[in-house]
Amino acid sequence: MNEFLDILTNPAFWVAVLRIATPLILGTLGVLMCERAGVLNLGIEGIMVAGAFTGWLAVYVGAGLWGGVLVAAATGAVLGLLHAFLTVVLALSQHVSGLGITLLATALSYFGYRVSFPKVSTPPTITPFQEMDWLGIPILAEQTALTLLALVSVPVVAYVLYRTPMGLAVRMVGENPKAAEGQGVSVVGVRTGAVVLGSAFMGMAGSFLTLSAFNAFFFNMVNGRGWICVALVVFASWRPGKALLGALLFAFFDALQLRLQQSGAAVLPYQMYLMLPYVLSILALVLVARKASYPQALMKPYRKGER
Amino acid sequence: MRLEKRQHSSASALVLAPIGAVVFTLMVSALLVRWAGAPVGQTYALLLQGAYGSVFALSETLTRAIPLMLTGLAATVAFKARLFNIGAEGQLYVGALAAVAVGGMHDGTGLALPPALLFFLMLLCAALAGALLLLGPALMKARLGVDEVVTTLLLNFIVLLLVSLMLDGPMKDPTAMGWPQSVALMGELELAKLIPQTRVHTGLLFAVALAVALWALMKYTVLGFDIRALGANPRAAAFCGVPVTRTVVLVALISGALAGLAGAIEVAGRTSYLTLDMSPGYGYSGIVIAMLAALHPLAVVVASVFVAGMLVGADSMSRAVGVPTFIADVIVAASLISVLVATLLTQYRVRWR
Q1: What is the CATH number of the domain that holds B64?
Q2: Domain assignment present for B10
Q3: What is the helix (H) or strand (E) element at residue B139, kind and residue range?
Q4: Per-residue model confidence (pLDDT) at position A264
Q5: Please, what is the angle between helix B88-103 and helix B148-168, to 10°?
Q6: Greatest Cα-to-Cα distance within chain B, rounded to the nearest angstrom
Q7: Scanning A111, A145, B205, B254, which has the fewest C-beta atoms within 10 Å of its C-beta?
Q8: Which residue out of A111, A229, A300, A304 would a mutagenesis test of the B interface target, given it has the greatest number of B Cβ atoms within 10 Å?
Q9: Residue A66 structural domain
Q10: CB pairs < 8 Å spanning A and B
């Protein structure tokens, strides 16, 4: 029991929680925007890889760190545009198109990395974002500016979604596209916009990995974080505030399993601890499933004039 | 721009659409080859030669196509019923685990069964393991409305960690010098080679037979009709008395079993033991293959030979002209997207306003 207390009272533990949560917050917000407009985006896993790669590459060839974040967001937006074209304009299966985007974005990133760096034994590095020592708030001061950006994004997204005409339009096309069309809202336009913006967030989530958490690009570095975000959105009942909570909760268990592995209390094989976050995600899905309020038109393609 | 449903789509368009889409993909991918600084013509020639150009190349491609065929069939039957099983990767690995558990762990001394019976038992356990792994998500979907995409995806990660745990513990090969690999299968359980001096094994016949069986099941049985009805329109199917939950559960069992068999056949036919990198994403590629085949079981055989050819050909091409092997993954993923669009255009025509 003391082991637990030692871990929980250590500020370094909470620093780790917030750091692990950052890409999840950004990614979950991205998925949330797409799904609120009625579009499932399983491209997130690949978009995060592409964002991680292009953001890092931009900085490596001389752009500033924020330039890298912008490039990552733009990469996400372009892939989001492709996903929107396939699923919104052509009304193809959202599942299959999303998986296609993931496979394509991952393969293109790995290909680009190998072409740019054919023979490297150790991955080339950049100077990543530094801690915000000037901030003066404990724990937060030990994070980078991207974490701050992620935290600030939550209320902004919530405000736009619930308090602006734009947010209302997004929620309308996600709940009842026909009624929205009747009100003069362009379903194709709003859905495309939401998917592009959401995908830009996914790209930024990826860039956190290479520009803040690490200083290089590795294969398999996203490692399922994108899928976790898709699960977190369900857990959060498609609400930005709850999404933040879910990401923090997930990061809490992820950080905890890391510490437990390292501490003397590790009585189980380390793989059991690594399984914990995934098992918890599935459990969370089962627990909230009954009262989950899916956007009514999620995964339902909309073709004008077709029933 | 607006899409208008065609009254009827021509049969030749249905066949030509995927071929045209793949040719289009290869043309676009040529830009990447140029970026890598290699001559396009030579690169593609080497790619095709490395995939299908000799008996050896063809045997390697067919070897690679066997697990892809099985995971492709697993995705086909599931997607046909709108059960989005993205967990074939995990099901493949539990199948392989089950195969090693039955056919390798006790050196044949624990179970003094005749090899033929043990072989059958090994495949049965592998199929059962894969089926049970998918049963959970399918029931959660049917009973609780939990989206199966996320649960099956997350299970892939859990299973891979489970495999890692078993390779460290109970299934560890003590003679592997610390290399994470399982004990080997009993020699009698390994599949025979189809062509001497190559790696292609009788699992190929098994996979093709299963493709034919699945095709017959879909076309001629009541279950097949229920699956197609459920996939075409779930509400109408339920209204017409198709037992929805029962069909979803049966589809999950069939799909999971096929993916589980892919793992067992891979162990019995190629590796003879289980490692953590046994499958370079066969489960995910299976979905691509199913879509390339337009969810037709017999076309899965062709599509898996195409995808396997790209992967195998890229290996030897890369050694010769230095274009990274990831070009194969790009071609496969881009083919998926362009085939989807091409197939859509056979059913709809574009109207510009």
Answers
A1: 1.10.3470
A2: no
A3: helix B115-139
A4: 63
A5: 30
A6: 75
A7: B205
A8: A111
A9: 2-116+140-289
A10: 129
Asked if the Cβ–Cβ distance from A289 to B155 is below 8 Å, we say no
Hey, of B154, B310, B323, which one would you mutate to test binding to chain A, going by the most A CBs within 10 A of its CB?
B154
> What Å distances lie between residue A236 and A231, A248, B148, B162, B174, CA to CA?
9, 12, 17, 28, 46
CATH number of the structural domain spanning residue A276: 1.10.3470
Please state, for a pLDDT cut of 90, what percent of chain B lies above it.
67
Number of H helices, E strands in chain A: 12, 0
Cα–Cα dist B30/A251, whole Å: 42
Q: How confident is the model at residue B189 (pLDDT cuts 50, 70, 90)?
A: confident
Burial class (CB in 10 A: 0-12, 13-18, 19+), B336: buried
Decide if A156 is inside a domain.
yes
- Does the residue B191 lie in any domain? yes
Dist. CA B81–CA A140, nearest whole Å: 48
Four-residue CA torsion sign, A92, A95, A98, A102: negative
- Over residues B197-223, the pLDDT tens digits come to 889 999 999 999 999 999 999 999 999
Q: Which residues of A touch B334 (CB under 8 A)?
A: 104
B222 and A CB contact within 8 Å: no
Q: What's the Cα-to-Cα distance from B215 to each of A276, B115, B194, B294, rounded to whole Å? A: 40, 30, 24, 13
Residue B353 has pLDDT above 70, yes or no: no
A303 domain residue, yes or no: no
Tokens representing residue A211 in the block: 């520009």
Tell me whether residue B252 is in a domain.
Answer: yes
Q: Does B330 touch chain A (CB under 8 A)?
A: yes
pLDDT in tens, B273-332: 899 989 988 999 999 999 999 899 999 999 999 999 999 999 999 999 989 999 999 999
Q: Does A163 touch chain B (CB under 8 A)?
A: no
Within a domain: A150: yes
Range of the domain at B198: 37-323
Chain B residues within 8 A of A292 when measuring between CB atoms: 145
Closest-approach residue (CA) in chain B for A299: B147
Alpha-carbon gap, residue A277 to B116, rounded angstroms: 42
Rg (CA), chain A: 20
Determine, yes or no, domain membership for B350: no
pLDDT at residue number A71: 98
CB B285 within 8 A of CB B116: no
Of B84, B111, B127, B65, nearest to B313 by C-alpha is: B65
A228 contacts on B by Cβ (under 8 Å): 154
Number of domains in chain A: 1
Decide: helix, strand or coil at residue A176.
coil
Q: What share of chain A is helix, strand, coil (3-state, %, to 5)?
A: 70, 0, 30
CA–CA separation, B32 and B27 (whole Å): 10
Tell me the Ramachandran region of residue A126: left when phi exceeds 0, alpha when psi lies from -120 to 50, beta otherwise: beta
Average pLDDT over residues A66-84: 98
- Contact criterion met (CB < 8 Å) for B3 and A91: yes
Cα–Cα distance between B190 and A262 in angstroms, integer? 41
Check B330 against A92: CB less than 8 A apart.
Answer: no
**In 10 A of CB B114, how many CB atoms?**
9
Structure tokens of B155? 């299970």
**pLDDT band at A275; cut points 50, 70, 90:** confident
